[in-house]
Design a protein that fits this description.
588 residues, alpha/beta, Glucose Oxidase, domain 1, Enzyme I, Chain A, domain 2, TIM Barrel, 4 domains, 8-stranded mixed sheet, 8-stranded parallel β-barrel, 22 helices, 47% helix, binds phosphoenolpyruvate, binds magnesium ion
Length: 588
């Protein structure tokens, strides 16, 4: 009998990374099933449970050895391999094995229940440790024991890094650490139930030019592994089990999109300036060194935001000073003679790095993140500052501090930098003593006192993602409030205008490195407000350059003046689209 046709399902989410892709679903189910509790087993059953437990240990070990082999073949960093080795050691741990077997036999219970109980005891033991390093080792134990529990349940262990065939990953949530781990050749795109336009996994998808739709709410309930699926990352449309005719429509759209991308290369070597000669510097945002080639290929004139926190993810322990020098040096040499703005560690909120998961906060977006974390953890901060300074001897580097909320914090950050400089001087290690420093303006309080901040910095860069999160009170990763993400909101526009004016008045460069900078219609307004530098993902560089070359600076200034009195985002949008319809006209 012919297989029944699967139902076609159309879903709409938030398209966060353009591109059209058709492929098979890979549903990432990461939950560990609640272990069943069987007791009063007879002796034969008890021994079967012991055997089952030992078989699951062997299976887990074989899986880990396979992962280790793959990492070695792919020449992944030593750090990744060290984590696998640590997990393999835990699988051989006598206490773990003996306690579980003892519990199965003494209480005559099933293997998963006994193992889960032993895991609970071990986690309590780790949580009580005074030493933070040892406390954090608890998460290694939990991680590998969960694998054994999953193997006992008979369910497959789902991990993005273990994908063997090309697929579109569907998951409830994907963290920035997950995106960092993805095998880019295997993941064609991703879809999530949760998330917003400026959540960091969405930003990563754009950087990796990987189509993605987030905030689909129930995609994990609607799609199954093996389903055929169409993803339109620009419109946020997702079609599960599409008909042949729909597939054909999307195939054509995809061709158009790709030829549009190719046509943009016409602008690559042209200067980025308005028709009346205002020069705007277009820079690239980067998280991983893999993104450098694409940024250079698209003509980025330097790095306007290097999100260094990705160096701290998916690993145990912190990156050493030498390791960081190597990473920064690589970027700066590759971009030379263009400048690289290195942002100091911005962990927290949706970006969790090594050692950070020990800090549980009720409201992490407003918690101990970014510069606050660094000022509290002076050793970590100093190591990074020394590394950046050392790399500055090899090219043009600028340092940028994230989440500055006031002048006091800026001064403290600069004092830490002065200390790092003094140390290097005493050690006779070369660095650029005139290295420029800048502050990100992404907390409303900093925007309000921008005139005071620009007196103490060489440049400022507006982080519109966080600035909007805090000024409009919308959680960046919450799909339920994503509709409130309105860059044309008069409050956002007024804030940007005030910051740009303060910077221009002080003769200090004013950039924007939030996602707003990469959208032509928003970039137009930013230029009109006097922003002189825009930093974005690779694909946006040529789109924005094409726009800037087609407008006049005076015209942009006039329109910015005219929208200043408008009351709502839709009024602003209507005004601009009536005056400048070409801003919204993409050729695909
Ligand atoms: C921002 O907040 O706009 C920004 C560029 O920083 P991040 O997205 O890394 O928080
Ligand atoms: Mg930010």
């Amino acid at each position: 009998m012919a297989e029944a046709k699967k139902q076609v399902v159309l879903m709409k989410g938030i398209g966060v990374s353009s591109g059209i892709v058709v492929g098979k679903v890979y549903l990432l189910e990461r939950g560990i099933p609640e272990p069943a509790h069987f007791c009063y087993l007879d002796m034969a059953e008890v021994e079967r449970e012991v055997d089952r437990f030992k078989a699951a240990l062997r299976e887990s070990r074989d899986q880990m050895l396979r992962i280790k082999k793959k990492m070695e073949d792919d020449q992944r960093g030593k750090e990744h391999i060290r984590i696998i080795d640590a997990h393999l050691m835990i699988l051989k741990d006598n206490m773990l094995i003996n306690d579980t077997v003892k519990l199965i036999r003494e209480e005559r219970v099933n293997a998963e229940w006994a193992l889960n109980k032993v895991l609970g005891d071990l986690m309590e033991f780790f949580a009580r440790m005074d030493d933070q390093y040892l406390r954090e080792r608890g998460s290694d134990v939990e991680h590998i024991v969960n694998r054994v529990l999953l193997n006992l349940s008979g369910r497959k262990h789902e991990s993005i890094s273990e994908l063997k065939t090309q697929a579109i990953v569907v998951a409830h949530d994907i963290t920035p650490a997950d995106t960092e781990q993805m095998d880019k050749a295997m993941v064609l795109g991703f879809l999530t139930d949760v998330g917003g336009r400026t959540s960091h996994s969405a930003i990563m998808a754009r950087s990796l030019e990987m189509p993605a739709v987030v905030g689909l709410e129930s995609i994990t309930r609607r799609a199954e592994t093996g389903d055929t699926i169409i993803v339109d990352g620009a419109t946020g449309t997702v079609i599960i089990n599409p008909s042949d005719s729909v597939m054909e429509v999307y195939r054509k759209r995809r061709e158009k999109f790709e030829s549009y991308g190719r046509a943009l290369f016409h602008y690559k070597d042209m200067p980025c300036e308005t028709k009346d000669g205002r020069r705007v510097r277009l820079m690239g945002n980067m998280e991983l060194s893999e993104e450098l080639d694409s940024l250079i290929e698209h003509g980025a004139e330097g790095i306007g935001l290097y999100r260094t926190e990705y160096l701290y993810m998916n690993r145990k322990g912190l990156p050493s000073e030498d390791e960081q020098v190597k990473a920064y040096k690589h970027v700066v040499k590759r971009m030379s003679p263009n400048p690289v703005i290195i942002r100091t560690l911005d962990v927290g909120a949706d970006k969790v790095a090594a050692g950070m998961d020990a800090v549980k906060e009720t409201n992490p977006a407003m918690g101990l993140r970014a510069i606050r974390f660094c000022l509290k953890n002076a050793g970590i901060f100093k190591t990074q500052l020394r590394a950046i300074l050392r790399a500055s001897a090899h090219g043009r580097i600028k340092i940028m501090f994230p989440m500055i909320s006031g002048v006091e914090e800026l001064r403290q950050a600069k004092a830490a930098l002065a200390e790092a400089k003094a140390e290097l001087k005493a050690e006779r290690i070369a660095f650029d003593d005139k290295i420029e420093t800048g502050a990100m303006i992404e907390v409303p309080s900093a925007a309000v006192i921008a005139d005071l901040i620009v007196k103490e910095t060489d440049f400022v860069s507006i982080g519109t993602n966080d600035l909007m999160q805090y000024s409009l009170a919308i959680d960046r990763v919450n799909e339920h409030v994503a509709y409130l993400y309105e860059p044309f909101h008069p409050a956002v526009l007024r804030t940007i205008k005030a910051v740009a004016e303060a910077a221009n008045k002080a003769g200090v460069s004013c950039g924007v490195c939030g996602e707003m900078a990469g959208e032509p219609a928003y970039a137009f307004i930013l230029v009109g407000f006097g922003v002189d530098q825009l930093s974005m993902n690779a694909f946006s560089v040529l789109r924005v350059k094409r726009l800037i070359r087609s407008i006049g600076y005076n015209e942009a200034k006039r329109i910015c003046k005219a929208i200043s009195g408008l009351a709502t985002a839709s009024e602003v949008e209507a005004y601009i689209s009536a005056k400048m319809p070409e801003l919204y006209k993409e050729e695909f």
